[in-house]
């Protein structure tokens, strides 16, 4: 591709510029930014400048523009990166042949990395034609994790306070599942925030969005009373309406992804307790022994919310017990130690909750079956914290900036180092392009035994070590290191490091405490025995070498490692946070190196987070430290595509127009000359191509593909016409044979009729011997049917069902889930999905009560298992907006049929893993179908704008749901707890009465329409538990355990449930 001298701002690819220096580079980006062109290419690298406003370029129109297109066909866009990664996954990278892809998004805090991640995932789901529930769940992961892991900082209003690597797993281009890896959540933010910053978003969502009933349930206080909200209520008060909306969206996302109602309730209890922990005031007496100051209300509230004993909580916060030679000693905490214990418990509680959320997401989004590595490919998206430099920079900033150094090194390796080394080894004539190598800076951090993290770990081993002694060791060991700058004042705990992005001064205060991340063993023991299921579960889990939470029930492969006994000092041998983070970065880089990388460089245009403001000096600094000028130069001069000869021939041999082509350099040259490419080189084992050559090659492949489709169309048409003549002739022959057979049959029938009439006309009775001869078979009439050849085709539907049944056999197997591996377990209690009988069974077992109204009868809009065509017939003479909901035969779910202006439209209604309802392609989730109907009577179904208006009932003299009615033998809806039936008998109810489920429980509704309510309604949780105690598997409405259901019933204090639970 020749260099261009286009007017400023009109060049989509900066690598094509004829003249290139820092000033020209900045001018191009600035001019494009001022004209809302925020995306620019540098070769195959995308530069994205944050506009700080919505430009309206991420809708369906733009999504279609970037589907399976050659890059040069459209302006630069983040969607083009998604398309490139997806197509490379399907065909293999032209550079490495690797099918696994990774997209590395980098930039400083506030540059737009998280938003870019969401756009990339959205387009990838669009590319694989994702309309399934799994794909909708994946789209909800980012906003869900943002609520718990993002916060407002001085640099970014939605700053990621953790890193994440999202792996989308595919089979034959279809997404099969996803996995999230989390890195270094900034837990310290829960208990303290710097000036101008906020706590995690979720707390402000709760304060602004919880209903009065929920506020009371979770013992919430007024926002400005919480000491853990260091800088006041802020967002909870200034953005209350928006925060309330965000909580509703979060709840909807959790419903859609598959979090149980009970789990959400326990999560909110933990979060409320986390805030309340800060209200526990601690002081010291004259002996310097800590005690809880003032009222014990805060202690009691925390204990109630997370299911622990309040006296035990008070004790673990104020003293510790130690033993020596069989004697137990009480060691009182000082006020400062007690506050540290309280804050440590709070941070660990929140940190483990966050890890559990990630684990839960991984479980819910895992592939339904265990897939072999050879069967799958993946696209990984890395969204990690950006480079940070605040007024006060602590341990978290040091780790974050280390991660950015590692990513910069990975970028340098791929763009500069490895590429130029390959030129040399392959004998390519090349002028070396210098770049800033940050290897020596990484050694400063990671070297052993003398590196910053190694020295920090060493210092953490000494009980009397302090943050100052750590800084003194740094000053002694790195005095001559040009990256390390010690403080001018000897007594200071500060030190500075010259990073690739600039000098950062760190304050070492609390470095040792944050690196140790200790929690007293008595606190661990107390939380493990909590009556709150979720609290107990997350504290019985263990932390892996990379810092992730592994729940014990998922670590079967490592059972040989004994579970730590309660009360032991497991924290002594616990790996430090720095060591865990170092290990996690190592694992991450291994994953990235096994994939073909795509780079997105995010640029922050100004420091004030303002739209339409481009600060030249600020942007120049970012371009300089990211090496953008050198990157542009090497992309212009270098050869970004370096495939092996065989890989290139396999991919593009069709372009050579030769039936036989050797998989060596001669084959490659033949292809390139046939296509007419220039400016390429042949090495010893590889071909060296410019980055734009891939677009040109793919363009030729697309043209060839279109030609092949046209040829196929013509050929298939010709063959179809030939077959048509043959089939018409055969059909005519069969018709003639059938006519001959029918004529013979008619003739024989007439003969027999004539004989019979003669007998009947006789004067005498029919002799007795006639009947005897008939019985003996003497007068059997034999008619030989002609041989008719009927062409027998394969019943594709039956074949499909058969193969699916075989697949379901695998689904029923329980997979052993081990650390870092998640398999979604799918149970089907109702038979083969896609059969009418299975749908009937599913409906009776789980849905019989879900479609009834308050009177106990089926809603007017409800219909049975009817076809799409029958639904359209019912709606044909109805007004626009008429609708009905029918049970699906092809899957366990429903279909919504709606009369629109020009035609009938049909929408699938799916059930979430927790038994809630949603229209496929829409985000809102509903507890029942009545809520769904009510919602879409007001809000149109996007993108069509159709609104439900009038229910379409049954046709006259027809009841199309009769097969779904309750079993006539017991006169009750299938799935109703047998304990409730016993209760009906005890009360002497008539057999015609049915149990009807309503939002406040089951009632006994006589067939006459009147309703007699049970004095103690049965909740859904109790219903599931009771069903299980009667020896039946609980229906798939919810996956609550028996114990969870029992505890739920006990909390509601309903004696009927306790009595029922003991019937077993």
Task: Give a written overview of the molecule.
The chain is α+β, with helices and mostly antiparallel strands. Helices cover 44% and strands 12% of the residues. It has 35 helices and 29 strands. The strands form nine sheets. A seven-stranded mixed β-sheet has the order 1-2-18-3-12-6-7, with helices on both faces. The radius of gyration is 36 Å and the shape is globular. Residues 804-814 have a biased composition (Acidic residues). It comes from Acanthaster planci. Residues 585-607 are annotated as: Actin-binding. One of its GO terms (biological process) is regulation of actin filament length.
Short structural summary:
This protein has 1064 residues and is of the alpha+beta class. It is built from 35 helices and 29 strands. A hairpin with a 4-residue loop joins strand 19 and strand 20.
């Amino acid at each position: 591709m020749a260099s261009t001298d286009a007017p400023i701002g009109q060049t989509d690819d900066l690598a094509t510029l004829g003249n290139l220096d820092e000033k020209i580079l900045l001018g191009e980006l600035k001019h494009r930014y001022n004209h809302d062109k925020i995306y620019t290419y540098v070769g195959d690298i995308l530069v994205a400048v944050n506009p700080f406003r919505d430009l309206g370029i991420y809708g369906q129109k733009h999504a279609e523009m970037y589907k399976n297109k050659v890059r040069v066909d459209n302006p630069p866009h983040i969607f083009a990166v998604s398309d490139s990664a997806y197509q490379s996954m399907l065909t293999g990278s032209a550079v490495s042949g690797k099918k696994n892809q990774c997209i590395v998004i980098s930039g400083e805090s506030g540059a737009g990395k998280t938003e870019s991640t969401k756009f990339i995932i959205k387009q990838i789901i669009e590319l694989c034609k994702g309309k399934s529930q799994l794909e909708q769940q994946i789209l909800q992961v980012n906003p869900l994790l943002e609520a718990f892991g993002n916060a407002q900082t001085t640099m970014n209003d939605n700053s990621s306070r953790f890193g994440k690597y999202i792996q989308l797993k595919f089979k034959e281009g279809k997404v099969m599942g996803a996995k999230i890896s989390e890195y270094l959540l900034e837990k310290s933010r829960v208990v303290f925030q710097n000036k101008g910053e906020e706590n995690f978003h979720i707390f402000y969502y709760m304060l602004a969005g919880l209903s009065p009933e929920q506020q009371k349930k979770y013992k919430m206080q007024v926002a400005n009373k919480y000491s853990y909200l260091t800088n006041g209520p802020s967002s909870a008060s200034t953005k209350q309406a928006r925060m309330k909306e965000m909580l509703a969206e979060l709840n909807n996302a959790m419903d859609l992804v598959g979090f149980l109602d009970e789990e959400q309730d326990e999560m909110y209890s933990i979060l409320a307790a986390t805030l309340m922990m800060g209200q526990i005031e601690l002081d010291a007496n004259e002996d310097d022994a800590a005690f809880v100051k003032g009222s014990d209300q805060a202690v009691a509230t925390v204990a109630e919310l997370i299911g622990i004993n309040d006296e035990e909580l008070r004790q673990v916060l104020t003293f510790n017990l130690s033993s020596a030679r069989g004697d137990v000693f009480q060691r009182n905490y000082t006020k400062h130690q007690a506050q540290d214990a309280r804050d440590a418990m709070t941070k660990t509680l929140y940190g483990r909750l966050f890890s559990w959320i990630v684990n839960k997401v991984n479980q819910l989004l895992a592939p339904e079956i265990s897939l072999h590595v050879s069967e799958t490919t993946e696209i990984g998206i890395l969204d990690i914290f950006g480079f940070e430099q605040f007024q006060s920079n602590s341990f978290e900033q040091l780790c974050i900036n280390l991660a950015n150094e590692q990513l910069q090194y990975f970028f340098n390796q791929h763009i500069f180092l490895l590429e130029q080394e390959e030129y040399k080894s392959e004998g390519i004539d090349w002028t070396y392009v210098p770049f800033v190598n940050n290897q020596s800076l990484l050694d400063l951090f990671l070297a052993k035994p003398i590196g910053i993290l190694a020295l920090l770990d060493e210092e953490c081993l000494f009980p009397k070590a302090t943050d100052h002694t750590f800084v003194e060791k740094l000053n002694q060991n790195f005095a001559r290191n040009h990256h390390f700058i010690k403080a001018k004042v000897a007594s200071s705990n500060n030190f500075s490091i010259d990073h690739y992005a600039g000098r950062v001064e760190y304050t070492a205060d609390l470095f040792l405490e944050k690196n140790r991340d200790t929690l007293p063993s008595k606190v661990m023991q107390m939380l493990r025995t909590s009556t709150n299921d979720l609290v107990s579960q997350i504290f019985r889990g263990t932390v892996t070498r990379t810092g992730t939470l592994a729940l014990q029930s998922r670590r079967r492969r490592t059972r040989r490692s004994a579970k730590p006994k309660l009360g032991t000092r497991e924290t002594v041998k616990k790996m430090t946070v720095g060591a865990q983070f170092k290990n996690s970065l190592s694992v991450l880089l291994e994953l990235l190196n096994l994939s073909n990388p795509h780079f997105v460089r995010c640029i922050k245009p100004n420091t004030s987070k303002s739209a339409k403001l481009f600060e030249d000096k600020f942007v120049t600094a970012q371009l300089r430290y990211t090496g953008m000028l050198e990157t542009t130069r090497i992309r212009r001069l270098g050869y970004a595509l370096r495939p092996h000869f065989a890989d290139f021939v396999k991919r593009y041999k069709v372009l050579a127009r030769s039936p036989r082509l050797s998989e060596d350099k001669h084959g490659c040259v033949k292809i390139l000359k046939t296509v007419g490419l220039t400016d390429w080189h042949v090495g010893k084992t590889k071909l060296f191509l410019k980055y734009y050559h891939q677009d040109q090659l793919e363009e030729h492949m697309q043209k060839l593909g279109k030609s092949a489709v046209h040829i196929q169309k013509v050929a298939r048409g010709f063959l179809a016409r030939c077959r048509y003549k043959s089939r018409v002739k055969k059909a005519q022959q069969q018709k003639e044979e059938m006519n001959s057979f029918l004529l013979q049959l008619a003739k024989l029938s007439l003969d027999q009729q004539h004989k019979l009439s003669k007998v009947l006309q006789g004067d005498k009775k029919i002799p007795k011997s006639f009947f005897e001869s008939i019985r003996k078979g003497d007068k059997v009439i034999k008619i030989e049917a002609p041989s008719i050849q009927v062409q027998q085709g394969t019943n594709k539907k039956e074949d499909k069902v058969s193969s699916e049944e075989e697949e379901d056999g695998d689904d029923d197997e329980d997979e052993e889930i081990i650390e870092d591996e998640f398999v979604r377990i799918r149970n089907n209690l109702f038979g083969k999905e896609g059969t009418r009988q299975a749908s009937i069974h599913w409906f009776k077992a789980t849905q019989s009560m879900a479609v009834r109204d308050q009177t106990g009868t089926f809603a007017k809009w409800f219909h049975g298992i009817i076809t799409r065509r029958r639904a359209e017939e019912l709606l044909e003479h109805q007004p626009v907006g008429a609708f009905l909901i029918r049970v699906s035969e092809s899957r366990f779910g429903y279909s919504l049929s709606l009369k629109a202006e020009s035609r009938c439209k049909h929408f699938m209604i799916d059930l979430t893993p927790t038994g809630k309802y949603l229209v496929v392609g829409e985000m809102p989730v509903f507890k029942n179908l009545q809520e769904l109907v009510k919602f879409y009577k007001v809000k149109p179904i996007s993108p069509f704008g159709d609104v439900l208006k009038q229910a379409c009932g049954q046709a006259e003299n027809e009841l199309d749901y009769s097969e779904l009615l309750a079993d006539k033998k017991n006169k009750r809806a299938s799935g109703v707890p047998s304990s409730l039936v016993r209760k009906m008998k005890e009360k002497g109810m008539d057999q015609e009465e049915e149990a009807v489920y309503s939002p406040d429980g089951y009632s006994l509704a006589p067939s006459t329409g009147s309703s007699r309510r049970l004095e103690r309604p049965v909740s859904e949780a109790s219903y599931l538990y009771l069903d299980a105690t009667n020896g039946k598997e609980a229906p798939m409405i919810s996956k609550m355990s028996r114990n969870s259901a029992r505890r739920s019933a006990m909390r509601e204090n309903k004696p009927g449930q306790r009595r029922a639970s003991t019937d077993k």
